[in-house]
Specification:
The complex is a heterodimer of chains A (112) and B (117).
Chain A lengths: L2 E4 L4 E4 L4 E3 L1 E4 L5 E7 L5 E7 L5 E4 L2 E4 L9 E3 L8 E8 L7 E2 L3 E6 L1
Parallel strand pairs in A: 2-12
Antiparallel strand pairs in A: 1-4, 3-9, 5-6, 5-10, 7-8, 8-9, 10-11, 10-12
Chain B lengths: L4 E3 L2 E4 L5 E6 L6 E7 L6 E7 L2 E4 L8 E4 L6 E5 L8 E8 L11 E2 L3 E5 L1
Parallel strand pairs in B: 2-11
Antiparallel strand pairs in B: 1-3, 3-8, 4-5, 4-9, 5-6, 7-8, 9-10, 9-11
Classes of the chains: A mainly beta (112), B mainly beta (117).
């Protein structure tokens, strides 16, 4: 079946530190991959996506590269801010389907 | 554009009581989803509608949960009777619903936080 595995949190970083949140997946074929972010008290919102191997999704300084050989989609940011504190969810959408499968989420806390 | 609207924002009930949640998706979105998000876990799909038809309800506990999307627009999710383990945030999401789209973006509401005592 389809599944997503994320590194466990919480992740606590100082402002301007480098961020990596690991995500690996299991899926049939070549799914689309997503990172969603959930700020405190809000619903999930799409952060970035990639639809095929070697694609790089980017938004708001965050990046993730679709690695087929390692079935990974790690989220990175070069310099985090306090406002990046949130829960980050990795997700996949199998080709030809509309059912999105989410990982368990990784909580990020950025301290000044 | 207006987002996905959900109500109520919070609900506290006792076990064995019933509860209903309401969702109004983004105008023109054919696909509507109900997710259950238990604290510390990722969202789990309960039911997915395409217009007013059910596409996937394989993880919906049908002995106590029901959902409908009359007229293919807004939707209600009901729990009757509620159990302690139903305490969670219930998220509604919608998407354009292009069949087989590989980059389908989901738009989420803020959710309803349910506490069952």
């Amino acid at each position: 079946g389809n599944s997503v595995t994320q590194m466990e949190g919480p992740v606590t970083l100082s402002e301007e530190a480098f961020l990596t949140i690991n995500c690996t997946y299991t899926a049939t074929g070549y799914p689309s991959l997503f990172w969603y972010v959930q700020y405190p008290g809000e619903g999930l919102q799409l952060l970035l996506k990639a639809t095929k191997a070697d694609d790089k999704g980017s938004n708001k300084g965050f990046e993730a590269t679709y690695r087929k050989e390692t079935t990974s989609f790690h989220l990175e940011k070069g310099s985090v801010q306090v406002s990046d504190s949130a829960v980050y969810f990795c997700a996949l959408l199998p080709l030809g389907y509309q059912k999105v499968t989410f990982g368990t989420g990784t909580k990020l806390q950025v301290i000044p | 554009e207006a987002g996905v609207a959900q109500s109520p924002r919070y609900k506290i009930i006792e076990k064995r009581q019933s509860v209903a949640f309401w969702c109004n998706p983004i105008s023109g979105h054919a696909t509507l989803y109900w997710y259950q998000q238990i604290l510390g876990q990722g969202p789990k799909l309960l039911i997915q509608f395409q217009n007013n038809g059910v596409v996937d309800d394989s993880q919906l506990p049908k002995d106590r949960f029901s959902a409908e999307r009359l007229k293919g627009v807004d939707s209600t999710l009901k729990i009757q009777p509620a159990k302690l383990e139903d305490s969670a945030v219930y998220l509604c999401a919608s998407s354009l619903g292009s069949q087989g789209a590989s980059n389908e973006k989901l738009f989420f509401g803020s959710g309803t936080q349910l506490s069952v005592l």
